[in-house]
Amino acid sequence: MQRRWKVRPAKSNWGEFGDDDQIGRLNLITPDVRRMAALEIKEGLTFCLSIPLDLPGGNLLVSNRLPPMRTIAKKAGRPLVNFPFCCDNPDWNDIGCDDAVTLYTQYSTQWDALSHIGCEFDADDDGEAEIVYYNGYRGGEHILGPDAEKGPGALRLGIENMAETCVQGRGVMVDLFARFGAEQKLVGYEDLMRVLEEDKITVESGDMLCIHTGWTRAVVEQKDNLDTQLLHGSHSVLNGADGKLLDWIDKSGIAALIADNFAVEGFQTSSGDGSRRFPALPLHRRCIVELGMNLGELWHLSPLNDWLKANKRSRFMLTAPPLRMPGSFGSPVTPVATV
Ligand code: UVW
């Protein structure tokens, strides 16, 4: 065990789950929390909270993230489709198909690993900022680029750490779409508190909070006619510049924050205080870097949200492990809600 920092960001929890901790707020999903989550299974109905992984389609949403590319595996130089699978033995007549997929891990319904976002911060107190991630893990030492001997990838904070926890607990749905509709609305602390109060939603330690904005449903419905207005200028986003909102996320005890929009929060275009350099995604910084809280994005929450509304509920059992892919910065996920 080794502490990697002398100074930690003012509102961070570095060290509080252990100096070598790599799962952050998932530590709050205890056996008791899982038992309480299981009590939310009353009807035995399940919901798939992923959109098809080839959506949103194209690369209008983020230019550097491409749709899945499928190739067919080969055997004996032939494509392995409708293939005599066990051709090594002429007496066997099984037929098989094998493929391979190149997946951009953050293209569609996904989890951000704790290695997805870092920041510049003077953690060793020598007057110069270095690249740090949750719990003081370092860019160049633990998070490696393609030129590093052991790179590329996350030697620490990779998505496999999240997978190993199984990510099963209680989900709590908050319906912003019902309040704010399809217009782009920057939702801050006061707005969120009003929705929680009016919808009588209680959030407890270890809960995974799901923010329903309706964005993903619109993307699925309009998938053949997507434009930048829908992708970048519609539906609610959290206001990461609202410090009270970030403090509430911390104090709420939630283990993970999930949304059915692109990035949970909107991008910031100025610092607000004249600083030349500032975080474009301050909620990402507080949650991922400072609190060790994974963010789920592009989830398909609308069908579950509709059912919960119709049944006057907001809670459900959520099972959402990412791929156990060593060293990855994120992962596609097929979350399952059980009600
Ligand atoms: C970005 O990389 C913009 O963030 P995320 O994938 O977490 O939305």
From TrEMBL:
<dbReference type="InterPro" id="IPR037175">
    <property type="entry name" value="KFase_sf"/>
</dbReference>
<dbReference type="InterPro" id="IPR007325">
    <property type="entry name" value="KFase/CYL"/>
</dbReference>
<protein>
    <submittedName>
        <fullName>Putative cyclase</fullName>
    </submittedName>
</protein>
<dbReference type="Pfam" id="PF04199">
    <property type="entry name" value="Cyclase"/>
</dbReference>
<dbReference type="GO" id="GO:0004061">
    <property type="term" value="F:arylformamidase activity"/>
</dbReference>
<dbReference type="GO" id="GO:0019441">
    <property type="term" value="P:L-tryptophan catabolic process to kynurenine"/>
</dbReference>
